[in-house]
Amino acid sequence: MKKNLFIVISFLLPLFAAGQNPARDYTNAVLWQQTSGEYRALCFQAYNFARLSLKEALWADTSKKPNCVIVDIDETVLDNSAFQGHEIKKGLSYVSEDWTEWTNLAQADTVPGALAFLKFAASKNIETFYVSNRDEKDYIATLKNLQHFGFPYADDAHLLVSKGTSNKEPRRQKITETHHILLLCGDNLSDFSNIFYRENKNTFEQVNTNQNLFGTKYIVLPNPMYGDWEKPLYQGEKLSDKDKAKQRLERLKSY
């Protein structure tokens, strides 16, 4: 009897521990990005569409400005799932000091298809602007990471970091002063326009209204790990990871 009880307890303890660690909620999302063929396929699919759309945009181009594409960095051209895995193993969701440590390593791998697409764009004399919400303190290491893989236009003139605001619209508008934007690539709808999250509009309705832009002007990369989509799930301020985990569970649809 004691032996059987020990076996049952040994089996239940890891499950109980997992339930007490909200960071474990993200395990499947990170593993999916790191190990699934479907993740790679979706990335290649996105950048294949980007290439086709770029050709179409060039054919229709009448602008006298230099052409460009705008890309986000994290989960769009660089894969940070190793950082997310690191945090989960520490029992954390996100710690800014750990993120700085990770970016300083400049070891993020490329998102499948990203480098080939941007090199193709460069071959057509299309510049790339990297518009990221990484902080200024991450600037040098970010350039190092991009340059390590030979990303085109990875230089001071084409990397625009947050400088105190996560709103990318002013940076996009600054680019339009000198360049014609053919398309934008990102893993977050805020990488394309403020209408999806920053203007208090219904995100589903805005996506429906702009559906013809996805796969043409807007190229979306898969990111199940984090993003603006998660923010509307939570009610309240200064929530702990445990509070957020409880609210995530409550928001699930069931029957």
TrEMBL record:
Region forming the signal peptide: 1-23
InterPro entries documented for this protein: Acid_phosphat_B-like, HAD-like_sf, HAD_sf, Lipo_e_P4
Gene3D superfamilies on file: HAD superfamily/HAD-like
Keyword match Lipoprotein: yes
GO CC, alphabetical: cell outer membrane
Record keywords: Lipoprotein, Signal
NCBIfam families in the cross-refs: lipo_e_P4 (TIGR01533)
Record protein name field: 5'-nucleotidase, lipoprotein e(P4) family
Source organism: Pedobacter psychrodurus
